[in-house]
């Protein structure tokens, strides 16, 4: 019920011009931001058709529903997931289902189309060309890639082998699927495949996670038995990924300051079979880097709150305006988190990621951080990845709907520079994965945090010390 109420509330605010969809969704503090975002975008996209259905069936009169709530419910019933949740509203809507279905069918006949998407206005149909496949990460804490592939084949899916080029990922349709070309534990399906009710998903054997969001843990690649921090962890997709890479051995300290999101995270980690974690409802900025508890932490994953501008809403093509003050505040927060993380005395590697497309939250934050922390340098990541950080930070990765067929994303990896004779890096020489498929394994949601006492970030400075990507031995 909460999902539908929130979605209706946001549509109402958008209509009153009280904010852009993305900002309102992010500020809503709803637990599953992605789900809420998708529902709002899709309902908006079909708004005209939904309105026509509501008017011709006189739904508002029959049910006393408010307009936006009715739209959201009709969308989900007729076009979306089929009202998976909804409590008493579900029961009420089901009573009217045949009238509503008949109204939709009449509209299709009138417009001489057979598919729902052909009812969309032409400009929205064009944005629909944005194509992000359905990515499924195999949870190696519970199963193996081979077992999942076998299970799916028995379930009527057809396995096409491993993709040899990115374009292959866009060719999938129906029940065909393939292994990703970069990440061994990632399976790729047509965007239309829905796994939310699938046994493998419910049992925690697979995790529904965008490919770009799988990169941070994969690239950090902490060793089995290592001590690792996930600084802004909820709802925990990257935490469970880190645990899988660590084979549930060692210590995974996960922090988040949002209680609700942490409780969702606990459920997710339980389902995923993660046991090596210590969850803390704590502000990462207040965690003491010199505490004996963290004396062996050598790896940190930092995926802080961001604008979420990389998350694609098919309705707006991702082009919503961002409030400059909000971006500034976020960038200052991200820089504080980075500077704080680099204070952990034994830290060797840190991966910084955002689901933002804005340079202010990505390359600019990273450039200032490098200026302030000369002991650290950028690692050149995945040489054949097609989309790089903005010049001069080409060691970093970017991801997008058009070049990598993922949501928009940014990833940077920092490494502590040590003198040759200290040996501490050599001991860790195989931590940066090459993009080969030889090794096993490899969420974005959030809540706004605007507690900034940093100075305004200066423009990115041209610091660029390249270092060749280490290959896995
Ligand atoms: C982008 S989300 C993290 C997504 C997560 N890494 C995943 O993959 O599922 C950012 C998270 O940072 C949390 N956060 C924001 N400020 C924080 C702080 N000062 N300390 C700890 N967590 C914080 C938010 O509550 C939010 O859950």
Automatic annotation (TrEMBL):
GO molecular function, one term: RNA methyltransferase activity
Region (Disordered): 421-473
Catalytic residue list: 355
The entry's keywords: Methyltransferase, RNA-binding, S-adenosyl-L-methionine, Transferase
Domain of life according to the entry: Eukaryota
GO cellular component, one term: nucleolus
InterPro entries: MeTrfase_RsmB-F_NOP2_cat, MeTrfase_RsmB-F_NOP2_dom, NSUN5_7_fdxn-like, NSUN5_RCM1_N, RCMT, SAM-dependent_MTases_sf
Chain sites annotated for binding S-adenosyl-L-methionine: 232-238, 256, 283, 303
GO biological process: rRNA base methylation
Basic residues compositional bias, start-end: 460-473
PROSITE patterns cross-referenced by the UniProt entry: SAM_MT_RSMB_NOP
Pfam families: Methyltr_RsmB-F (PF01189), NSUN5_fdxn-like (PF21148), NSUN5_N (PF21153)
SAM-dependent MTase RsmB/NOP-type domain boundaries: 124-417
Family: Belongs to the class I-like SAM-binding methyltransferase superfamily. RsmB/NOP family.
PANTHER family listed in its UniProt record: 28S RRNA (CYTOSINE-C(5))-METHYLTRANSFERASE, NOP2 YEAST -RELATED NOL1/NOP2/FMU SUN DOMAIN-CONTAINING
This protein's name: Probable 28S rRNA (Cytosine-C(5))-methyltransferase
Organism of origin: Ictalurus punctatus (Channel catfish)
Taxonomic path: Eukaryota, Metazoa, Chordata, Craniata, Vertebrata
Gene name per UniProt: NSUN5
């Amino acid at each position: 019920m909460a999902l539908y109420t929130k979605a209706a509330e946001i549509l109402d605010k958008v209509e009153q011009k009280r904010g852009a969809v993305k900002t309102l969704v992010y500020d809503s503090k709803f637990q599953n931001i992605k789900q809420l975002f998708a529902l709002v975008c899709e309902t908006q996209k079909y708004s005209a058709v939904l309105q026509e259905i509501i008017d011709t069936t006189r739904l508002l009169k029959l049910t006393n529903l408010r307009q936006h709530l009715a739209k959201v419910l009709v969308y989900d019933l007729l076009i979306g997931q089929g009202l998976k949740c909804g409590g008493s509203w579900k029961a009420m809507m089901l009573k009217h289902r045949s009238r509503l279905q008949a109204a939709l069918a009449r509209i299709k006949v009138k417009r001489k189309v057979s598919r729902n998407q052909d009812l969309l206005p032409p400009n929205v149909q064009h944005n629909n060309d944005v194509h992000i496949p359905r990515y499924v990460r195999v949870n190696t804490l519970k199963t193996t890639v081979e077992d999942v592939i076998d299970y799916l084949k028995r379930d009527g899916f057809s396995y096409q082998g491993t993709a040899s080029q990115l374009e292959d990922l866009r060719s999938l349709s129906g029940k065909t699927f393939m292994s990703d070309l970069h990440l061994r534990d990632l399976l790729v399906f047509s965007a239309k495949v829905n796994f939310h009710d699938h046994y493998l998903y419910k049992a925690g054997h697979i995790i529904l996670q965008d490919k770009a969001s799988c990169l941070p843990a994969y690239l950090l690649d902490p060793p089995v038995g290592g001590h690792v921090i996930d600084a802004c962890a909820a709802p925990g997709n990257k935490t469970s990924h880190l645990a899988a890479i660590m084979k549930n051995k060692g210590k995974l300290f996960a922090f988040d300051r949002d209680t609700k999101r942490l409780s969702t995270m606990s459920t997710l980690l339980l389902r995923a079979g993660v046991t090596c974690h210590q969850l803390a409802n704590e502000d990462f900025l207040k965690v003491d880097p010199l505490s004996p508890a963290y004396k062996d932490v050598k790896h940190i994953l930092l995926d802080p709150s961001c604008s979420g501008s990389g998350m694609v809403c098919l309705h707006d093509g991702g082009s919503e305006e961002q409030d400059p003050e909000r971006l500034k505040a976020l960038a200052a927060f991200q820089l504080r988190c980075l500077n704080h993380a680099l204070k952990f005395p034994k830290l060797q590697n840190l991966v910084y990621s955002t689901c933002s497309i804005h340079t202010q939250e990505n390359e600019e934050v990273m450039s200032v951080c490098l200026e302030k922390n000369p002991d650290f340098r950028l690692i050149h990541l995945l040489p054949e990845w097609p989309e790089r950080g903005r010049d001069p930070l080409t060691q970093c990765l970017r991801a997008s709907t058009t070049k990598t067929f993922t949501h928009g994303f940014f990833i940077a990896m920092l490494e502590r520079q040590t003198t040759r004779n200290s040996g501490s890096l050599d001991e860790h020489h195989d931590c940066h994965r090459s993009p080969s498929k030889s090794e096993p394994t490899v969420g974005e949601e959030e809540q706004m945090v605007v507690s900034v006492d940093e100075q305004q970030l200066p423009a990115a400075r041209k610091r660029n010390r390249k270092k060749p990507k280490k290959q896995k031995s």
